[in-house]
Amino acid sequence: MDGPSGDERGTTERVLTLLGLLQQRQVWTGPELADRLGVTARTVRRDVERLRTLGYPVHASQGVGGGYQLGPGQDLPPLLFDDEEAIATALSLLAGAGVERGGDAALRALTKLDRVLPTRLRSEVRALSGSVESFGGGRTPVDSEVLMTLARACRDEVEAGFGYPSGGEVRRRRVEPYRLVASDRRWYLLAYDLDRDDWRNFRVDRMTEVSARTWRFRPRAAPDAAAYVQESVASRVYPHQARFLVHAPAAMVRTQVSASAAVVRERGSERCEVISGADNLDRVLLHVLMLGHDFEILDPPELGRRSRELAERLRSAGARAL
Questions:
Q1: How far is CA 264 from the centre of its chain?
Q2: In the prediction, which pLDDT does 316 show?
Q3: Do 111 and 140 touch, CB atoms closer than 8 A?
Q4: Are 28 and 67 within 8 A, CB to CB?
Q5: Tens digit of pLDDT for each residue in 150-171?
Q6: Which residues lie below 8 Å from residue 235, measured CB to CB, with a gap of 6+?
Q7: DSSP secondary structure string, 186-214?
Q8: What span, in angstroms and rounded, lies between the C-alpha atoms of 3 and 276?
């Protein structure tokens, strides 16, 4: 018996690509899908019908904000999971989203699974999610439903709102969510703050009354999410920032400092730049000193003067000890 032709294989690959796109965000217009797949709008309609024939609940709507949407169905699509398998997978992903390694991938997979869970399973998974915990050096606990809401808002490119402490009071924030970022300690949301007209990162554990709107936005040119949040957490949130040139490989220094305490950038194979912040410069200087490597102060200039003062004080103390 002959195998599938090249055209058949191409159609299958294209339909699978279409399914992946529909799982990435809430609504796609026909022209958007046609452009992504490199086909005509008519071909998109045919491929949508192929997915429906396979049991995938693809909905279509007209007018402003309309398009194709992959919705939850009465049954899971064929060749995926039965009820028990779907619940077990979702709970495993919920647990994975709360630990240090694999949390980002687990959360992405969970948002995709949530898109195709039937209503009867979705409510059961969310009810059971409260029994999932972790221990050890994990992150600050956050509500899994909040993570899911924010992850879907990032995926679907819709505005989000939440209460957030500022200046001693909780204020409502309106944002265009971009990425969820996990540090070694906490979950953060990188978003464009519509009231402050600038990029901001927010601690997820400090949010209250989190909600996602149906209003979609056009994505802006965004900074690198992980790098932006790390630099903000490690230095920009503090009143004093400092930069050092450390005479040791970046890989070695990264094992000595927490990612939330400093940004380490390669400067050749044997040196690296360390950027950190603190409430006072003495703490930053002591932190770098205790790494045990030779280093140079790049910024700020007053830190060089302060290091000489401390060096003289230490020399004097050492002399008296003799």
A1: 20
A2: 84
A3: no
A4: yes
A5: 888 888 889 999 999 987 889 9
A6: 241, 262, 263, 275, 276, 277
A7: -EEEEEEETTTTEEEEEEGGG-EEEEEEE
A8: 60
